[in-house]
């Protein structure tokens, strides 16, 4: 059987036929950023829980399977702020979780970073979703003149 497979590949290559190759398992996208709200409406200060929690990033599971986010983290462009997902957190198939900057009670739909000041820069910042040292997703927010005027500081990734 192995000899036959080798013969077919050699024949296909020598005649110029395309040989389909399986994509590596890690090439499949499983998670992505959904909405990145870097510049929440109104003033950033004073830092209240309500204001801090209006700043957030959403992570969406784009598969049909629940994914454990143990070992995943989010960090900002300069790697100053790092959020580590709870080791027991699982994101359901097709579900989105919102990671708020401030404090609150974690649920299956909302997680809280617990910061006392804003994480994301209002004019330009990039969010990175990492699994260990592997980059899973990125999203860059760059404020436009219209966003500044209308105070709509988010990007759909």
Automatic annotation (TrEMBL):
Coiled-coil regions, chain positions: none
Record-linked Pfam families: LTD
Family annotation (InterPro entries): Lamin_tail_dom, Lamin_tail_dom_sf
Stretches that traverse the bilayer: none
Listed SUPFAM superfamilies: Lamin A/C globular tail domain
Domain LTD: 19-145
Keyword Signal: yes
Keyword terms of this UniProt record: Signal
Cleaved signal peptide residues: 1-27
Name of the protein: LTD domain-containing protein
Organism expressing this protein natively: Flexivirga endophytica
């Amino acid at each position: 059987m192995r000899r036959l497979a080798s013969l077919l590949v050699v024949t296909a290559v020598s005649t110029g036929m395309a040989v389909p190759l399986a994509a590596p398992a890690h090439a499949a996208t499983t998670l992505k950023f959904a909405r990145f709200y870097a510049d929440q409406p109104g003033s950033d200060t004073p830092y209240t829980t309500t204001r801090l929690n209006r700043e957030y990033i959403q992570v969406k599971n784009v598969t049909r399977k629940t994914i454990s986010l143990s070992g995943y983290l989010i960090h900002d462009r300069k790697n100053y702020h790092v959020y580590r997902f709870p080791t027991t957190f699982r994101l359901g198939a097709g579900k989105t979780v919102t990671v708020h900057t401030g404090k609150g009670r974690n649920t299956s739909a909302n997680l809280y970073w617990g910061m006392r000041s804003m994480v994301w820069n209002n004019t330009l910042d990039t969010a990175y979703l990492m699994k260990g040292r592997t980059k899973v997703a990125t999203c860059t927010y760059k404020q436009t003149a219209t966003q500044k005027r209308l105070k709509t500081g988010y990007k759909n990734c």
